[in-house]
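Q: I'm a student working through a structural biology exercise. My instructor gave each of us a protein and asked us to get a predicted structure, then write a short paragraph describing it. Mine is Purple acid phosphatase. I'm not confident about reading structure output yet, so if you can add a plain explanation after the tokens, that would really help. Here is the sequence I was given:
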Amino acid sequence: MEVMWGRDGVWLIVVVVGFLYSICEGGSTSSFLRNDYLSLDMPLDSDVFRVPPGYNAPQQVHITQGDHLGKSVIISWITPDEPGSSTVVYWAQDTRLKRQAHGFFVTYRFFNYTSAYIHHCTIENLKFDTKYYYEVGIGNTTRQLWFKTPPPPGPDVPYTFGLIGDLGQTYDSNTTLTHYEESPTKGDAILFVGDLSYADDYPFHDNVRWDTWGRFIERVAAYQPWIWTAGNHEIDFAPQLGEARPFKPYTNRYHVPYKASGSTSPLWYSIKRASAYIIVMSSYSAFGKYTPQYKWVEKELPKVNRSETPWLIVLMHGPMYSSYENHYMEGESFRVMYEKWFVEYKVDVVFAGHVHAYERSERVSNIAYNIVNGLCRPLNDESAPMYITIGDGGNLEGLATAMTEPQPRYSAYREASFGHGILDIKNRSHAYFSWNRNQDGYAVEADSVWLHNKYWTSLEHASLATQRSNNLQQTATQ
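A: Happy to help. First, here is the predicted structure for Purple acid phosphatase. I'll explain a few features afterward.
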């Protein structure tokens, strides 16, 4: 600290920020005491896994966005006994006119498992901001459900997303989903950051666990779209079982609109939804220079119109910044490849999973490091995204409780608990993120932060600077 005598007899205290920064610890680590145990699987006869009554009744119904803009929905379901019909009947809430959309079905084999009939049907040309009812199945086993389309894209369109990752199908998984369902701030869509059923954690990658998981999430996924990200537990690469095609169960069961954004793979794609532009990336596909994913992201980021969709959100499974010992530094290669673009295009927030805990970062970047300059620590960077790890859905592998010490400066808050997040976009400049731990009541926020959109903040600062400059010029000429 340096003390200086200022103008008009005022003492000025000048803090040498760099010095204080060098001796500061990181943010806060929660002191919340939780049970440290592996999560327990729910029994297969639990009511959350129940099969709908009736012969060949549709089950595992789930929806996702079906196009790039938000006027289309992909509806997926399974019939267990025979193909039945792949047609969806649907109608808007304010009309009796019923329409039909026709889909298709697929099946697959994995080791000693043969899937039932997996139906996918895309409903197109829907109205924005409208509630629709839909029916799947035929005869006495028809099931009626509903969804709501988003409002049209626009800079000040409010919209709320839920955030869930690494869910699994344990008692803790059920608590996470129940808390989300019962929350008064429940989202209108879920951004899911990977690791779905954890079927590969069972002997022979037991694909029956894909079926139980599909029935488990139906109570939410049939009514609001889940935006899917593939994690490491979706790879299902098992050459010892004769299964050498990665992502086979996942890509057969969970379709996404990847072609609408010019992607060549369902593992990376983008969508618009209200005031958000969401880019989904694959941590477990080739991502180096000149790979298909790299070339797609390189073209995708410049296409984002921040005047239409100001909030730029990236989803991936492996975190680029994490201070937990589990999976420590696994995302470093990914960070080296893509962080410079995230800063250049002012990505607002990057959501990831993989680490079974919660962590929120400061806005930092490590793009200055060039291997010889020694600038190897992340520095505060207002153009950088905030990184949020939310791999705490509740899976059977349990919590990641071991943390690196001391807490890094880039880490704002961390806690090894299960839970879910809510991202509530208010307008083009402000969004509110909150995280709810499972051990609290349904609506208790254990951590929260206001996000200030850096693209629009930069524009406002530039506008103010231009205005001041013009005022000064006018004053000088008078």
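A: Here are two points you could use in your paragraph. The first strand starts at residue 2 and ends at 5. Residues 367 and 373 are 12 Å apart (CA to CA). It's a good idea to check both against the output above yourself.
Q: Great, thank you!
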